[in-house]
Amino acid sequence: MDRLTFEGNFCDIAQCRELPCPYNGSCTQRQVWERLKAYEDGCAVIPPCKVGEIVWYKTYIDNGSTCIGVQPHKVKRIDVRVITDGDVIDTEIPAEQFGRTAFLSRKEAKRAQEEKRDG
Q1: How many whole angstroms separate alpha carbon 109 and alpha carbon 99?
Q2: How many whole angstroms separate alpha carbon 30 and alpha carbon 8?
Q3: Engineering a disulfide at 43: which of 1, 38, 87, 102 sits with its beta carbon 3.0 to 4.6 angstroms away?
């Protein structure tokens, strides 16, 4: 796929005429730009359905011993997890923990640890 975005500061690239930015750097155009960039970089997940939609799959009762066929189920939430290798078992990290208890760099983790300690 050809890239639709390019490197650089969005506000500089967009050449906004309003300085200082009335949106504090978080205008709608910038949000669309950042989502598109994340998708191109492989960091965005597009779920196969939406919350509230109906999905169909084989349904079991009696602790999984009796199949009652393909049944409709309403989607309550969509969950994304990162799986890492563990010494004994693999570890699952829910996506919402990134930036709170899981980080993409040691530097971010140390900064969060210091902020928590300093209160």
Answers
A1: 8
A2: 12
A3: 38
Give the Cα separation of 53 and 21 in Å (integer). Answer: 38
**Residue 60 to residue 38: CA distance in whole angstroms:** 38
Confidence of residue 103 (pLDDT cuts 50, 70, 90): confident
Which residues, including other chains, have CB under 8 Å from residue 54's CB and lie 6 or more apart? 72, 73, 74, 75
> Is the per-residue pLDDT at 35 higher than 70?
yes
SS (H, E, C) the chain: CCCCCCCCCHHHHHCCCCCCCCCCCCCHHHHHHHHHHHHHCCCCCCCCCCCCCEEEEEEEECCCCEEEEEEEEECCCCCCEEEECCCCCCEEEEHHHECCCECCCHHHHHHHHHHHHHC
How many residues does this entry show for the chain? 119
